[in-house]
Specification:
alpha/beta; six-stranded parallel beta sheet; UDP-N-acetylmuramoyl-L-alanine:D-glutamate ligase; 10 helices; homodimer; four-stranded mixed beta sheet; 15 strands
Chain lengths: 322, 322
Amino acid sequence: MIVTVTLNPALDITYTVPRLNPGTTHRPRVTAQAGGKGVNVTRTLHALGRETVAVLPLGGFDGEAVRTELETASVPHHVIPISGATRRTVTVVQTQSPDGLATGFNESGPELTVGEWAEICAAIGALLETATQDASSVLVLSGKLPRGLADSAYAELIAVADGFGVPTILDTEGPALLAGLGARPAIVKPNADELLDATGLSDPAQAAAELLKRGARAVVASSGPDGLTAHTADGSWTARPPRIDGGNPTGAGDAAVAALAVGLAGGTAWPDALADAAALSAATVLTDRAGVFDAEAYQRFKSELTPYSHPSPSRGTTPPSR
Amino acid sequence: MIVTVTLNPALDITYTVPRLNPGTTHRPRVTAQAGGKGVNVTRTLHALGRETVAVLPLGGFDGEAVRTELETASVPHHVIPISGATRRTVTVVQTQSPDGLATGFNESGPELTVGEWAEICAAIGALLETATQDASSVLVLSGKLPRGLADSAYAELIAVADGFGVPTILDTEGPALLAGLGARPAIVKPNADELLDATGLSDPAQAAAELLKRGARAVVASSGPDGLTAHTADGSWTARPPRIDGGNPTGAGDAAVAALAVGLAGGTAWPDALADAAALSAATVLTDRAGVFDAEAYQRFKSELTPYSHPSPSRGTTPPSR
């Protein structure tokens, strides 16, 4: 069982317009789906046929819309009802713009109360307790912390998982990332900006080494089209996906996390897990929805990808022990 | 009783950002309120202490959000539940932009079924039947028609009102405006663009004369900061509000309609009704929310405004007979 946690989920709205012309009124084509990084991870895992559940606090009318979409799409979920109103994100996509860049509006989301946080911790504990009967469980913590929680919130959840012998993937940034490291997550997955932001070091390898020193058991750094690099105590590898023109990078990092969770659950060797993550991530860029990948391209990319080892010599090829 | 009808209402979201930078992600300040032109009219009338009710079809989660906001704000409303999902509009307002222009995204809204349309007609009939005990009733029909309705939909409602001896103000555009004229609305309120669009005539006076010829009993043409001009069988008048720098024109036309409905209900002389409409409209521009006006400015503008008569000599100063 792979349990994902999305503490600040959203109703993700996409407005598709020919061109975004500031100062004018547009009549967009509208799509909506449940969003948030952990939700994307569970959506991907469910599509892969993996046992998974997305834990998320929901409130308000948009919270109901999120729950309904998850039910309609059969995405396994465990909702903690909250008093605040779930946020929206609006992404404006242009079909006739030369740069093709998306414009985003990310609402900040509700504050969690102390009581709601306690309920979330208890729910995750209960799910992990059940899940430990399944030897291949993983906890995935994704996204920024909502208002009202201490930076150490993820460290608390990592400790809960650790108590059940369940390893954790932590995909967040800033103080929440730094505070989580002391609880020794199995994998952290910063992108290049997040690595620099968390450590102040512009060299990704040095920055990753710093995160390892502070407690991460492995660092998988994502660099968009340049692929994924795993830095571990046993060595470093890079998997570079095929070049994709255009596409939608939203959710690409979450797809990588989904594959890493599968690798961690199955004790897959690092080069294979990394190739899988890069392939699934690239196959997600080919679709216009987060959490959805091009299944044919995924298999093709996976068969074509061969990660290469880095100077720091490999002393083993298995993921960190559970 | 002034009954307003909003066939395609919306949850109006305002995103306030320092600047809109296409291709980047923003963290907006968010406000939401029930919207749609008739809702704005009822909100204004309710603030003026007038007896009013907003009739509107609502469905889906955003429909529930609209209903909740109306209840919270104590705006009198009569909801017809529908199977489709009520739309949103998103307006992006910039606080640090030199032009200060807003960027809009107007979702198109749900289709109404034949059965839902019949329910709406019946509800309006029942409200007007009750309202005829009140000699000063008016029906206000505002906004574009939703998908699924014939262009003649407003003409049907005008005929229903006519059956109860209740005059109608029609504030719409295009084919729905033209089709409504045959049912002889007491007032139509096109803006300059809508006049041109409906008649193909670029001279507003000629265009207004054309609408009178086709059945409107009076045409009140709005020209933004240039004010309002009433064209009637009895003469023509213009009321020009004070110049306002900045401000938010959203809902200004709806405020004018609210004042015209009050004038029509009370048998107010045209110059007075027009001055009231121009003053209330300008006082609404001073606030950042549709349906909300600056009460102090409203009184001041009203005392300062003196409409002037046009060449076609006045043969009377009362609004069209009921």
